[in-house]
Amino acid sequence: MKMSRLIGQTRKEAPAGTSARSHELLLRGAYIHQVAAGIFSYLPLGQRLMQKISAILRREIEAIGGQEVNMPVAQPADLWQQSGRWYKIGAEMSRFIDRKGHDMALAMTHEETTGDLVHQFIQSYRDLPRLIYHLQTKWRDDPRPRAGLIRVREFVMKDSYSLDSSWEGLEQQYRNHYSAYFRIFDRCGLPVMAVLSDTGMMGGSIAHEFMYPGEVGEDTILFCPDKDCGYSANRQVAKFQKPVPVKEPLSPLEEVATPNCKSIAEVSQFLRVEPNHCAKMVFFVASLTYPEGQTRKQQQTQEQNGQKLVAAVLPGNMELNETKLTTLLNSLFGVRELRPAEEAEIAAAGAVAGYASPVGLQTEDCIVVADELIIAGSNWIGGANKEGFHVRGLNYGRDFEAQQVGDICAAAAEHPCPNCGKKMESTKAVEVGNIFQLGTFYSEAMDCYFTDESGQEKPIIMGSYGIGVGRLAACIAEQHNDEDGLIWPISVAPYQVHLLSLAGAKEPEAEKVAQQIYRDLQAAGIEVLFDDREERPGFKFKDADLIGIPIRLMIGKRSLENGGVEYRLRGRKQGKETPKTFWPVADVVNRTGMEIARLEEEIQSAVRNVEYRA
RNA sequence: CGGGGUGUAGCCUAGUGGCUAAGGCGUCUGCUUUGGGAGCAGAAGAUCGGGGGUUCGAGUCCCUCCACCCCGACCA
């Protein structure tokens, strides 16, 4: 590709409103162009980057038996009604009505269309196992797109779907993906950690996320520093060894005046007790799942009605984990949404914010959920549901009860590892991939059954596995850059070679050599970006640094005088100690080919075979 | 959805009630220059996000709508 003809202009200055390094560099390097919040066009360089990454994804998924298909972005509502997600998912799914008046949805993911395919084409145990995958656009109307390609609304995802007749088969395909994902990220030069994760809207039982650790991430993950232990989990589901409270003889419930003590910190200081003796209350309002078969109008009406106040009780030295709370609540009823309650809503249930207690809260519309520590412990300090007063000697069972008991505490750094008890560490991270054991939820809902050896009808056992291509590109950019610009690993670089003609107007010879080398490299099948523009050398160097293609070849009067073509690796500083490298013109194609092979070998040798670890 | 911020030429910015909206980058023309974003001369490019209002006068103040960014809620 000749740069004189390339669409997209590089920029010296960072566009306003970029906070992530990858966002800034991808914009400045003319890789992407923002069309609206979370919606991007990919310019030629960006598109080639995406295709390189896609090629890696295809290669590794095919290697574990994947067959590429293509499922649609526009989907009939029936499919989503069958799975029930039409009723469970809120505004994140965009819906529209086609000209015939049919409800339609834009694909957020493709479990439903997979079910549709499977229903049609898989009937017998002989048709299993199978693995299908595609690279297709997803639309998720995210309320808060941010940081360039890190969090967008429209994006291409590699998603695969495994189909099995047995749970052992699912386990095998799940493990295959687990290892394949590590190979994919290794090939992209991206360090990741696999962590246990929440199943969220996907449903299913077991799930892992592949996390790229870094400040640009929004997730927090916890992990055990002990390599042999290896426990790691998203904060949303992370467990930890909780201190077991000593059960004391129950003391009587008594009110104490605690003027102006609304927070746990204030109360514990005022009463001179440790926060872990206080019972903390956190209030939420849960919106319930729409009953199946409801029209959208009925759903809108239900918005106001189908809500319940949730009062969570946990020790004062712990933070509440909303995901754990939601999961617990889901065992009682379907939760579509959980949001913090407002003071008026809390008051309506008879509680006083700041002095709240679970005592006397069991009304029709209020659900009390208690952490297991509250049950195990005794004689808690809690609110009196009366402005300016708390109580001592608050005890579960005697003074109050909960509809649901479980673990609702958030794990944090320093908490003991649930496996080995060592202090865990935490880091922020970006989710670049996930794998889910879906089980039979979708196959049962969407009538995907097969006949087994004994002639019995059984639901197909499914798994689903995703990697966001654009987000992956952004993470690679986050990982591989310096003050001058991007530094792509050769495996994903839009071109393997950046050829710069540094010939001035009075140096037609050098220009001719550059043109010839460009043609020779192309003829040899080497991907080359040729800077043939009429610009000064310095200008071209800056652009080449910004764009970040790994191998740079430079031809000018000076290089010819020094023996031919100057070779340089992007990202390797050309200090006084490292002498410049020149290749004879006749050798350039050969040497370049060898250099590409060497760089590819470097990547290849970094590809690990990571064994599955639950 | 809540809080904060920003909208001025393709990009980055200045302009804080008063003359024809200013500069840099980029673009175009010519000359000159050619190993780390050169120099000179000239040119084009803006209904100052939209609408409404206050005022003799609004890019500037007020209202309103929209868009984008950041934080939170949210999503994964």
From TrEMBL:
Its EC number is 6.1.1.15. Residues 34-489 form the Aminoacyl-transfer RNA synthetases class-II family profile domain. One of its GO terms (molecular function) is proline-tRNA ligase activity. It is found in: Cytoplasm. Consists of three domains: the N-terminal catalytic domain, the editing domain and the C-terminal anticodon-binding domain. Catalyzes the attachment of proline to tRNA(Pro) in a two-step reaction: proline is first activated by ATP to form Pro-AMP and then transferred to the acceptor end of tRNA(Pro). As ProRS can inadvertently accommodate and process non-cognate amino acids such as alanine and cysteine, to avoid such errors it has two additional distinct editing activities against alanine. One activity is designated as 'pretransfer' editing and involves the tRNA(Pro)-independent hydrolysis of activated Ala-AMP. Homodimer. This is Proline--tRNA ligase. The gene is proS.
